[in-house]
Amino acid sequence: MNKPLADLIRPKTLDEVVGQKHLLAEGKALYNLIMSGEIPNLIFYGPSGVGKTTVASIIAGATNRSLRKLNGTTASTQDIKDIVAEIDTFTAPNGILLYLDEIQYFNKRQQQSLLEFIENGKITLIASTTENPYFYIYPAILSRSTVFEFKSIESDEIVPAVKRGFDYLSNEYQVKLSIEDGVCEKIARGCGGDVRKALNCVENCFFASVTENGEKNISLQTAQELIQKSSVRYDREGDEHYDIISAYQKSMRGSDPDAALHYLARLLEAGDLPSACRRLVVCACEDVGLAYPQIIPIVKSAVDIALMVGLPEARIPLADAVVLVATAPKSNSGCMAIDSAIADVKGGKYGPIPRQLQNKHYDGEDAEVKGQFYLYPHDFENHWTAQQYLPDILKDKKYYTYGPNKNEQAFKAYWEKVKGKRND
């Protein structure tokens, strides 16, 4: 076969598209737009292999406009000019439907060159991108387009596409297939929500299997061997990267060790050891913090070991540390306190450092009261005495509030006793 299987069996109607029911189910906005035949400028946003190009092709087939295709990774400004030159000619009497794949690779000038013609309706744009369009697409294009988000496809929705792929190959090559139980499900689960990747695996399984007596046996072992490690959907430059590390930290913060281990596994399978380590250390400081301050050197030690031994052994100390962070008592009091202090500094709320704290031992001639008057706490009972430490403008400010955990409450009780007053 010269063309990939995914292209050969690409759905021709919306009913054949797998997944995306939130967009393509009857009555949904995108479904209604397509059925109306009045197609506005559209931007399809989502991971690869989930149907963006397929749906755009179905739309193109239902329009009486001339279809032109460009890919942002290879198209030039001249390609855009050539398309614009066709407008109102006999080759495009009703205007042009431009399908622009990977629009995020078009620079601002290239995107601007389309703007006039999108605005007057002579070009209808259907653009697709794997990146967040609000970061990568020129705002004027966005304001004239409707954005629809395509999502990863569940494995049970991919199974029919896998079976259709095997059926096509069986008919195309006139060979009977004996498919071991669980093969289609294994392929569907192993493709990370990417139909194209699943169909590539179907194709590889077909050609990697031996024909005996006019029949090919597609075994579970063959499928397992051909499901690539890259099936874990992950892009260090894309949204998926930030979604996974966000879920990883939020699961630890939410005290769910099972979810935290799941996202750790996804990071490690993608080879992203640095992100796994960095977020783990941050979470230990930010979310456990003063509730169990000893956790910080423990996690740091686990991360040092992980970075020293590398993968796959790094999974062991990291798993220990992730479970520890997820199951530890939580307090963000230290994080909240420093954020509040930084907000004051950024807002200009600071003043001269109190005289008793300054690092100098003489006063200028303009000083009304001479002397530093610093009180050395260790000279007093319990190594504490009252004196002003904050600048005058902030002298009564409270940044830190003791957390309700056992550790911080013990410190609170100690200082209430020493200072002889309530101190929140």
Notes on the structure:
With 424 residues, the protein is of the alpha/beta class. It has helices spanning 5-8, 21-24, 29-36, 52-61, 77-85, 108-119, 133-136, 139-143, 155-172, 183-190, 195-208, 220-226, 239-253, 257-269, 273-288, 295-309, 315-327, 333-346, 406-419; strands at 42-45, 66-71, 96-101, 123-129, 146-149, 176-179, 211-212, 215-218. The chain has a 5-stranded parallel sheet, sandwiched between helices. Helix 13 packs parallel to helix 15 (273-288), helix 14 runs antiparallel to helix 17 (315-327) and helix 15 runs antiparallel to helix 16 (295-309).
Topology:
Layout: H1 5-8, H2 21-24, H3 29-36, E1 42-45, H4 52-61, E2 66-71, H5 77-85, E3 96-101, H6 108-119, E4 123-129, H7 133-136, H8 139-143, E5 146-149, H9 155-172, E6 176-179, H10 183-190, H11 195-208, E7 211-212, E8 215-218, H12 220-226, H13 239-253, H14 257-269, H15 273-288, H16 295-309, H17 315-327, H18 333-346, H19 406-419
Helix pairs in contact: 5-6, 9-10, 9-11, 10-11, 13-14, 13-15, 14-17, 15-16, 15-17, 16-17
Short description:
The protein is α/β, with parallel strands linked by helices and 424 residues long. The chain contains 19 helices and 8 strands. The longest helix is centred in the middle third of the chain and has 18 residues.
